[in-house]
Structures are given as C-alpha cells and as structure tokens.
Amino acid sequence: MKMLILKMLHGVKTASVRLSRQYTSKAKRSVLLQDQKKVKNYEPKTSDAHTNRVYVWGFQETGALGLQTNVKKAKERYTEMVHHPTRLQFSNNNEITDVTAGYGFTVYAVKRSDGQTLFGSGLNTDSQLGFQVKGNKKDPANLDVIIYPTAIQLPREQGETDEDMQVRCMSAGRAHLVVVTQNGTVFTMGHNAYGQCGRSIIEDEVYTGSSLIHRIAQTDICGAEDEIVAVECGQDHTMLLTKLGRVYSCGWGADGQTGQGNYYSAGQLTLVGGDIEKERIVRIACASDCVLALNEHGDVFGWGNSEYGQLDDSPDAAPQICTPRALQLTKGIGKVKDVAAGGSFCMALNDQGLVYTWGYGILGFGPFVEQTSKPQHLLPPLFGRNDFSNATTVVSIGCGVFHMGAINSDGDLFMWGKNRFGHLGVGHKKDQFFPFKAAINGKVLKVAYGVDHTIALCRPHL
C-alpha cells in the first residue's frame, strides 16, 4: 500500500513538471506579441465637424444665452437662470471664431458659406444687435429681445467680399457694439448718447428700431501705416488698440476713462497720450470705467475710476484719473503678461503664472478679505496645480463688473466673485469667495464676461 501511494505521488509530480513549460526570452516575446492587424484603431466620433464649441450659463431671461430655438419652446421651457455651463446648439452648426458679451446680450463671429459673419442674441432695446425684423408670423412683434442667435447685417460697400467682412476683433459695452472686420473697417451700433459709437452725439436720438450702423475707415483713425488689432468696450466708452501699440478712445469720460485729459464725453476716436504716448501697448482691459493697459515690457498703466485705490494707493490719491499714468503699485510683482479691470477691482498675471488681485470686492482670498490696496497673489493650487500636475499654471485672466476668471494651461476655467445671476457656473447663485473650477467639457480658449452671463469659447479635449 505504501509503495502504491509513493508511485501515485511520483506520477503527480511528474505531471506537474510536464505542465510547467519553459520558454526562452525570444519565444516568450513571440507568444505575448499580438497580431497588430487584429487590434482595432479607435477613432472617436465627434458630434460636429467644427473646431470650436461654445458653452453658456447665467441669466437667460434676456435671451443672451441663445439656448432657445423658437418662440414656442421658449414659452414651454422657461428657465430664468442656467447654473451650469451648457453647450450652445448654435455652435454645433456654425464655426464660431470669437465671442463677446454685453449687458444682457451676446455676439458671435462666425464663418459660414452664405457670407454671414456676425450673429447676436439677447437684448436689442438700443439696436445693439442691429435692425431686426420678424422672420415669421410666430416671432414676437417686439424684437427688443432676440431669444436665439440671429444674423446682424453689416452694410457692405461695392466690391467688399465675404472675406473682407470676416471679424478681426470685437467688443460689447452696456448697450453698444464695436466690430472690426478683416479689411480694417470699424462698424459701431447701438447706444451713442455719450459718443461711444465714435460718431457725433445727437440730442434725444432714438435708438430703438434704428437701422443705423456706423462705418469708420481704419485709415481715418490710425493712418495707412498702422492697423487696428483689438477693441475693448467699457460700460459706455470704446478703445481701439493698433499694431504699433497706440490707443484711441471715445465715449463717456465722466471718470476719466477715455484718458483724453478731461472728464467730458467724446464722439470722435482720439489718440490717447499721457504716460503711454511713447509706449508700445499690447493689451487694454476694461469692464466698466477703470482701464488698465500693458506695454511690451510688462509694465502696467491705468486711468479712469480709482475710488477704491485700483490705480493709486497713496493717501491723497485722486478718485478719478483722466490721463494714463504708469502704476507704481504693480512694480513689485514682476513682469506682467495680462491684465483685467472690473468695476472696483483689478487683476494682473505675471510671467511666472501668478495671479494678483487688488481693490474692493470678492478678491479670491475668502469671505473676510474684501479690500486691499496692494496687489496680493492667489496661491497656484487654487488654479489646479498639485503634486500630479506641478507644471500647471495660469495663462490668461479676465473679469466682468463683479466677478473674475482665470484659464490655466490645461484649458480649465476657474471663477469667483458675485454670483447673483448664476454666471459663475458653479451650480448655484451664492457668491464664490475662492476660485472654483467650472465644469466645461472642453479646453477653454476665451471667455466673454457679461454683467449677468458668461460665454466660453472652447475646443474639444480629443
């Protein structure tokens, strides 16, 4: 019996030895190597063929978000606010190249085969979206509110092509719009009571239902040797930036925001002097009536409203500054590469990717810090930097009248500030005291900060 058990155990051992096959390194690679022809190449399907997509959120009652497609649906699905970034259907069907947001309205620059280059939605009480007529019988009789993106007809001169009418840059104020096309023509429309459209002020002018779109030739503003590269609208004034770094302004100047050395309204675009006269300005920023400018060396200049020490923190500082001056309070933050100015606060981004805020409001330092006369930097982890992504940094900043935003190198948008209309996109309408990441399914390229809504131009992650 003992011998039988030993023979059985020996047989099991022999079998186990036979089952454990030995491979050489070459044979092992051969066994593990897959047939690459059988491996499927996954190509994700995108919902549209366009490069950019647009997300919108905030106050919808004005029609600025353009989410509705017809009047009937607008009545059936009424929503006062959209608290989360929502993809705009219009961007699925059109190639959108630029966006801007005014007070209750939005404008899109597009590329289309039919030659239309400009669309808008939202408030049109002052014809800031051009002259709009009823498209069909179901449209409301009152076209002071446009609920979905509608073409804005730019008047053409003989010989002007679709390419000429493509938008180079644009900006919207409280109730006016300024558009610069590829051929250098400046188009202005909307409210002009302060000369913000760059034309003479007409007393008691009626803007509702107006078909007037003012044209200004680029050469009449900056001459043949220069060209306009950017436009920035404050609340009721306009500024144009040229390739040679010159700034031209017009409009309301009660707080010195035109920078023309006085506090009067101006109906003609005029070259701005002061400390920026011999500087090459590369960036101008203004959401209300305080203006910041940045030169090619990273120095910051400012003019306009300074009631909260945005431009000068000295004890005897003037509350309004009508001539551009070099800011001393930003000297210690390094070389600045981007600036933004809200209603009562300012922002700066240096070449190290650090964000600085100062002035009065929700500055991003929590609920107990609402005013500082010195620029203070927000810690990088607030904008996505961590142990797993230690190279992440902020690449651009912007703001509305009461809120701020920053885009990091990963294409993520962080927002903070007042949130009465849900325009921070954080899911509620409570104020946000620290930067908070917006849930956007795309890499953010540009953000248009309206007074009560926000528009983000993005690219897909894939």
From TrEMBL:
PROSITE patterns assigned to the protein according to its UniProt record, in alphabetical order: RCC1_3 (PS50012)
Annotated RCC repeat ranges: 52-112, 116-183, 184-244, 298-352, 353-410, 411-460
InterPro entries: Mitochondrial_GEF_domain, RCC1-like_dom, RCC1/BLIP-II, Reg_chr_condens
One of the GO biological process terms: positive regulation of mitochondrial translation
A GO molecular-function annotation: rRNA binding
PANTHER family linked to this entry: RCC1-LIKE G EXCHANGING FACTOR-LIKE PROTEIN
GO CC annotations on file: mitochondrial inner membrane
UniProt keyword terms in alphabetical order: Repeat
Organism in which the protein naturally occurs: Drosophila virilis (Fruit fly)
Name of the protein in question: RCC1-like domain-containing protein
Lineage of the species this protein comes from: Eukaryota, Metazoa, Ecdysozoa, Arthropoda, Hexapoda
Top-level lineage group: Eukaryota
Domain RCC1-like: 226-458
